[in-house]
Structures are given as structure tokens and as C-alpha cells.
Predict the structure.
Amino acid sequence: MKLADIASIACSCALSDDRMEKKDLQNNFKAEPWEEAFETRTEDALLALCDDRPRGIVPSPTLLPDGRSLSRVSCLLAAVDTQLRYFRYVIRAFGYGDDAESWLVQEGVAPSLAALDELFWKSEYHDAAGTAYKVRAVMIDAMGHPERTAAVYAWAAKNRERVFPSQGVHSPASPISYAPQEYFPGMKGERLKIPGGILLHRVDTTLFKGMLAAKLSIQAGDPGAFYLHASDKESLLAYAKEMCAEVWNAEKNMWDNPHGRPNHAFDCEYYLQALAWMLHVSKARRPEEKQAATQHQPKAQTQSIRTRPQPAILGRGAADVLAGLRRS
């Protein structure tokens, strides 16, 4: 590659907020290690991101000066941190574009996977105008406790294409990689086949926790802000504490929980960043834009947004699916 090309890439990275581009420049062109630097978060700073929406309410469209309304929410996504006796969950609304805002809709504790079914698939969440939204997809921690892994795999197999079992991994080769799982794990070593198999999503904790930390540094009202729903401070206090449990350890070059505090909300929120990235949420178009494009180009063919490699695996072995990915 010519020096002029490398200089062009360096200039592009200097003008961009894309962390993956900057990491690629540092590792692959400068041949230097990627080092992160993040500000320490405080509970008060987190709670300052609250808006005036009650818990469970989705942001309403923006009213334009000409009287038209502009959609702000492209979809609702959820993430789950798995514990032995309960599941910690977060539901977040995502906006449009690379600098999209996002809004905490609801967070809490579910006692069972059946309760998660109720929250994610059977419940609707409304904005102030009454527009209904449902959770589009969920990323769930599959390794939170060994006794829960088989149940999480079974839940994912039951809800293919909308539940993605995951494991956080420190600095893997790619942001999200896919590990075929053909068997349920047994506590005594027994092997029971998963019908059709599933894919375990191995998520880069360094990258996506870094993306989350960068979002949390944006002031409310600025592009890309990360909002919480309204709180009396007590209702979101546990969430705020969990969001502040982890800090960046420059010596270890990794995220660390130095005091061993609960960090369930932080895990859910970085999983949400990974899920939004995997599903190309930032590439979604507003309904108003789609309608305008249809009116101007009535014969144009619409193209569906492709997710990053996430195949349908119903009725196929996970190893066969992965082999197909390599051939494509």
C-alpha cells in the first residue's frame, strides 16, 4: 500500500468517531498496540442522563415546525445478564443513523425465562401518542452461571432469529464471532443434542464496553446521547451503581471490576451495543424516508437490510451453517 493511501486512512480516522477504524489504523498500519482511555463514571453523572419519560414509555416522534412528525425510534432491543436465581434485563430504544440517540425504556429483574417471554414477546411498550412497540431481538448471557447455560441454549433454540446467546471475550479476532453449539452442556458430562444446533456469539468486551463508555461521556442533548427514563433517584440507584462498577485498567489493557461489585446493568448495556451493531440498526431508515422514496421512485426495488453474518439455522446443524458462511 502506498504512503499516500495510509495518510488518507489516517486523515479519515482523525475526522471519524468510529472506534473500530481507529483501532484498525493503530494495529494494522502503525503496528502499535491499541490503548483505551476513559473517564471514570459517577452515579450522579449517570442519573443526570434521565429525561422526563416514565419507566416503560418509548420516546415520542419529534414535531417539526411545519406540523409534520419525525420518527425517533427505529426499534427496541433487549439484553439479559444471567444469574443463578434471576435474570437482570434492560430494554432500550434505538434511534436512526450512526450518531443515533438511545433511550432506556425499562430495566429490572425477571425470576424466570417465562417472565422474560412475557416482557419481550407478549408485552407492548407505547410512546405518549399511543404508538405500540415490541422488542425486536435479545442478546442473553449464556455463561452467567453453569447451571443456567443449557436452559439459555434451549430458550435461544425456541426463539431463533430473535434470541442470541452470547459470551463476552477479551479482545478476540473480530467484534463478534460465532461458535457452533451442537450439544446442551451437562453438569455431569452427558451429551444431549440441540435440535438444529445454535450459534454462541462471542462478543469483544474491550470493543463494545469501550463503545458504551464513549456513549456515556456524551452530554444530554448532544447527538448520540444515551438517555435514561425519569427517576426519583431511588428507582435507578441500583442501575447507576452497576453502571459504575467497571473501570478501564490501562496496565491490564482491559475492563476491570476492582471491587467485585455487581455490574449486571453494565453487562446488559454493552451487549445492547453489540446487538445494535450486529443488526445494523444504524442503517435503518425512517418510515417517512421510505415513504418519500416510494413516492419518487414507484418502481424501485426495495432491499432488505442484511445483518452481519447471522444465518437462519432452523433444521440445520450449526457446523453446516458455519461452513456455509465460509463459502459465501
